[in-house]
Amino acid sequence: MEPKNLPPTNYLFRFEGGNDNSYAFTTSTGIAYLVRFKPTPYIISEEWVFHTDVYELVIDLVDNPTGKPPTLDLVIPATLAAIIRDFYARTSLAITIYICDSSDGRQKSRERKFASWFQTYNPGTMVRFDYMIQDHTDGQSYYITLITSLWNPHIHDIISEFQRVADGYNDPK
To answer: Which structural domains are found in the chain, ordered by start?
Structure first.
């Protein structure tokens, strides 16, 4: 995902590997992040033929020495895009699921921000599908993004299966 109209470059990051395919980077203000691609075959169905290619994208703030909420940093989205590109270079058939944090009720805002970042930094080789799943027990909305390579030979099956799963969650039983 290369920037289309933004000048910032990305922060240096390192691939730490492990079961969660972790990446780490630190901002110019000393805030440290861990970006993980957690294998999550159960998100869709372990019976689904591509379930071993499903990863949940998790972005964790792991250290904030400033003690203040992070400010707008235009280099972070460029860094996340570079990390996603690196992960897909390592795991070309990956199916990435990003679930917006809903703990503070700002999940729709996070979904819009992530969509904007993706549009800005996508070089045209990735595809994104956004879904909103409504929890009928408490009325909570969950925003979920599916990302995969446009060149994934199973893209049509992936989209169909994910749509089926999302529709199943939205079906008021």
So the answer is: 13-170 (3.40.630)
